[in-house]
Specification:
With 129 residues, this protein is an alpha+beta fold. It has one domain (2-114). 39% of the residues lie in helices and 12% in strands. The protein has 4 helices and 5 strands; from the N terminus they run βααββααββ. The protein has helices spanning 7-18, 37-52, 66-80, 83-89, and strands spanning 2-5, 55-56, 60-61, 99-103, 113-114. The strands form 2 sheets. Strands 1-4-5 form a 3-stranded antiparallel sheet. Strand 2 and strand 3 (60-61) form a beta hairpin. Helix 2 crosses helix 3 (66-80). The protein is globular. The mean pLDDT is 88.
Length: 129
């Protein structure tokens, strides 16, 4: 699973996350203190890689089989509907996401394809496309 991050969206998201006006508590996988773009990416990927067979940097999760792949997708959905994450998403323009996700199925970047995921139930916003 490959993540293509939108650093502009992350910056807007983190201004709200760090602004002290957030009502909902941070998810337990997200470090405390002031967050920057790199810290958010690192924390998210580290959390996803716990069920996904490992990672490379903050752009790639490497599930080793379909079970791990399914677990990563489920955890990504669970992360997406987290109240803290959703609250911070309200500051982004409609349609803007933090990252676009793709899957690589035959070890070739040329074969990377967007991940087919259902959007979260309304009124939740899509966070990872």
């Amino acid at each position: 699973m490959l993540f293509s991050w939108d650093d502009n969206a992350l910056q807007i998201f983190l201004v709200h996350a760090n602004g002290g006006l957030v009502v909902n508590p941070r998810p337990n996988w997200l470090r405390g203190g002031i967050l920057n773009i790199q810290a958010f990416k690192d924390d998210l990927i580290a959390n996803l890689s716990l069920v996904g067979g490992g990672s490379f940097g903050n752009t790639l999760i490497g599930p080793n089989n379909l079970v791990q792949y399914g677990r990563v997708r489920d955890l990504l959905t669970h992360t997406e509907i987290n109240q803290f994450i959703q609250e911070c998403m309200t500051t982004l323009p409609i349609g803007m996401v933090l990252a676009t996700c793709a899957q690589i199925t035959d070890r070739s970047m040329a074969a990377a394809a967007p991940i087919a995921r259902d959007p979260p139930p309304a009124p939740a916003r899509l966070v990872f496309a």
